[in-house]
Design goal:
Length: 414
């Protein structure tokens, strides 16, 4: 049975409906296009685990023919793709893999606080050339806090109290972001720094001062700041949750899938349950399918009205069969009006293409199965897809967009 012919409306919705990419990062600037190992396109690994092992994953082997088709390479290999893309002009490479006629992405929400963005990547507004709606920002709160601490420590002596000026400056910065029409949400990387077991109650001033003393000492010795102090990090997250609850702009949390800087057993979204309960007016977005804790994330989204589940990054990092299973797990319990799609695209334009085409293929496969089994009607499946790709994010982030049906119709004709 050819599913595309059997369920034509579902096929059209999955493959051509305009999408809002609710979590991604900037691409590299042209002069830095080869700054990072290209294998990072298909793996979060580092070192030899990336450059030697990642090419032997099913995720990589699946990506090769998909990239080769766009580049028009016969019998492509990973090495031939790397060589060919080097010969292309960077504008051509970006258009091949990022233009809305290829990805069907109408709008991108970019977290531009990723390490290396300021030095090596393009500004968020420069991504507008690939879409038909303006790019918006997601503000990474730990990076904002680090910048404020650097500024304070440059002008304060070792024994000067900085907790109160820090609190004042951070609150003001978060409110400014909340009032910025180009900012649609916040992002926390607590998962990477101290784990997702964010304390819902305020820390004692003693613990906060001790954390700040450690930060100050490190800064005086190395001129760097990396916040990884439990009391202080939790304090920063709570401040962001408070502002979010007041302004209605969601807070995204990295959950699950990441590089080896994460402590895996502390990256489950289940650790967030106490703070989710403590901030009922704050919209929480659990990123990256929370893989491999997808069912736990779906449970939280099902029982808390302020929790939403992003199914991203697993495209293309997980095998095709794994992606389908992840979507099945998302749909086991999570209300379909609370699921959001993203690419987690970053650095390489190819990441946006693979994130789009693979997600669309997986959605069609899983939902056509449900229709074939008589579990849902085709029209219900179409609505689920349209909401997951566009309408849920449009509502949650208050984007006030209309789906650009020209993208849909143009791609459908092609």
């Amino acid at each position: 049975m050819h599913m595309a012919q059997t369920y034509p409306e579902l096929h059209k919705a999955c493959h051509f409906y305009p999408a809002i990419d609710n979590h991604a990062h900037p691409i590299l600037a042209e002069q830095h296009r080869d700054r990072f190992e290209f294998e990072g396109l298909i793996s979060e690994a580092q070192g030899s685990a990336l450059t030697v092992d990642a090419v032997h994953t099913l995720a990589c082997k699946r990506a090769v023919p998909q990239l080769g088709t766009i580049l028009n390479i016969r019998n492509p290999t990973w090495d031939s793709i790397k060589a060919y893309r080097k010969r292309l002009s960077y504008p051509d490479l970006c258009n091949l893999f990022m233009h809305s006629t290829v990805t069907r992405i109408q709008c991108m929400l970019l977290d531009d606080g990723l390490g290396g963005v300021e030095e090596f990547a393009e500004g968020y507004a420069q991504h507008d050339r690939f879409t038909t709606s303006p790019t918006k920002r997601i503000v990474r709160v730990e990076i904002v806090a680090e910048g404020i601490l650097k500024s304070l420590l440059k002008v304060h002596q070792d024994d000067a109290p900085i907790l109160q000026p820090f609190n004042t400056a951070l609150k003001a910065s978060l409110i400014d972001s909340a009032n910025d029409i180009n900012v649609v949400g916040f992002k926390s990387i607590a998962c990477y720094r101290t784990g997702l077991d964010v304390a819902p109650e305020a820390a004692s001033e003693e613990f906060l001062l001790a954390s700040l003393a450690e930060v100050s000492k490190t800064y005086r010795e190395t001129a760097t700041i990396r916040l990884a102090h439990k009391a202080l990090n939790d304090h920063i997250v709570r401040m962001a949750l408070e502002v979010s609850g007041e302004c209605g702009k969601p807070v995204q949390f990295h959950t699950g899938l990441g590089d080896n800087d994460i402590t895996l057993n502390r990256s489950s979204p289940s650790f967030l349950q106490p703070v989710i309960k403590a901030f009922p007016n704050t919209p929480f977005v659990l990123l990256h399918s929370s893989y491999p804790f997808t069912r736990e994330a779906g449970y939280l989204a099902a029982v808390y009205s302020n929790v939403f589940l992003d199914f991203g990054e697993v495209f293309p990092f997980v095998s095709g069969s794994g992606q389908k299973e992840i979507i099945r797990q998302v749909l086991e319990l999570c209300p379909t009006n609370k699921i959001l799609w993203s690419t987690d695209g970053h650095w390489w334009p190819e990441s946006f293409y693979l994130g789009s085409i693979q997600a669309r293929q997986a959605l069609y496969h899983v939902l056509s199965e449900s229709v074939a089994l008589g579990e849902i009607l085709e029209n219900d499946a179409v609505i689920i897809v349209q909401n997951a790709l566009f309408h849920n994010a449009n509502k949650l982030y208050n984007l006030s967009l209309e789906p650009d049906m020209a993208i849909f119709e143009r791609n459908e004709r092609d």
